Amino acid sequence: MITVRRGATLSSAQSDTLTLECHFAFADYQDPAHQHDGRLRVLNQGTLRPSEVYHLGPEAAVDVVTWVRAGSLTAQIDAFAPEEIQADGLHLISTGSGCQKLAWQAGPEGASFLQFWFLPDTDEGMPRQESRLSFPQGEDGGFRILASGFPEDDPEESEVVTDGAPVALSAGARLLHAVIPAGEGAAYSTSVNRDLYLLVVSGMVNVADAVLQAGDAAAVSDVRDLTVMAQEQAVVLLTDVAST
């Protein structure tokens, strides 16, 4: 089953000093019809002016993944060393037993970002931070894994560790990215009892009989094989999480 969520139907939430566009209930936006998608708890879109800071905390038992769409961000989490992330880069804070202060500061050009919150398999363990400045783009326009909690995606499980390896989630989940040329497609296969959530960052795509434009999303359940066809060059993000 595929359920389309149009970008125009998203609601706003006020979090700290920032107004976010939210796919699911968050902060002062409450919506019984859109609480989560499986174990994907949050998908928020935000824009920061130059040097502006977005604060959260305290938070525990959640993996917060921030993907920078444009500009740059510096993540400052408790006593961890600051991490600067450029466009197409990724930052993960796995809050584990708890983080008190989480902040992301925009660089001199500002920043546009997407933030995903994944519910982990366990709330135990010390907080940990991981980041990637960028990820190499595949030549075929297919999906590449940005973050994963599956052992088979862990570069330590293979003989060769390559640059741009996925960051390690605390749950059996994935975050994937694809740049799909016009007229071409990207395919992804999952297993049973999984929920997929596809977000069109830019461009226009077809998913089954649905046409999605920039800002639109599709919640996909009871589907093992997903194909995304681009009507025009498109950038998409895809999550694969356990159903609840």
UniProtKB/TrEMBL annotation:
Residues 166-241 form the Quercetin 2,3-dioxygenase C-terminal cupin domain. Gene3D superfamilies: Jelly Rolls. InterPro entries: Pirin (IPR012093), Quercetinase_C (IPR041602), RmlC-like_jellyroll (IPR014710), RmlC_Cupin_sf (IPR011051). This is Pirin.
